Amino acid sequence: MKILIADDHALFREGLHYTLKTLGDNVEILEASNGAEAIQIVRHFPDLDLVLLDLDMPGMDGYQGLAELRDKYPELPVAIVTASEYEQDLVRVMDYGAAGYIPKSSTSKDMLDAIRKILDGEIYTPDLAASSGTFHIRNGVTTAPQPPSAPTPALEKFHLTPRQREVLMLMCEGLSNKGIANRLGMAEGTVKIHVTAILKAMNAGNRTQAVIMAREAGAMM
Q1: Are 8 and 88 found together in one domain?
Q2: Quick one: 41 and 110 in the same domain?
Q3: Residues in Cβ contact with 31 at an 8 Å cutoff, skipping those fewer than 6 apart
Q4: For residue 150, pLDDT beyond 80
């Protein structure tokens, strides 16, 4: 197994290197201190299993690096490991196609659990509903800029963003997260984030209850 750590802080790379070695004896760790190095290493090692990319590096920011890697190497999982704890950053990188978003404040155990899930082909995002304020969010509603959508008066009492109203309406149509992602042209991981925020804003226990509440409010006529 080959994993690339791309981060400009040598001390963090050293700590993460040590942590990743506990995944098994066959783990080979490569390191890059900036975005250009990361791209070069990926180019020379087509057998990489995972890239762990910092958002803030000299020469190329994480968004630019993520976009380039997703464009040129769509089969290679790229997870963001970052000090940022703003939900708008999380939503943005998932829109860019990241395989996961791992805060640097995570414990070694949580980080390893996240990496194992990503290596197993899953999309990892922190559990926003159980984050206890780790992420800077406002009442479970993302502060990221949202594209405009038609007002839905029946849903106003839930204080959802325009994008969350769109996601909820498609939930009411019975679409899965994947179906919603395809309809709205976003990553499935981003849909999961929106669904979590919707459930929290509506105080719903699950998506079925959220749909029932939306229908009772007259959202689906």
Answers
A1: yes
A2: yes
A3: 4, 5, 6, 13, 17
A4: no
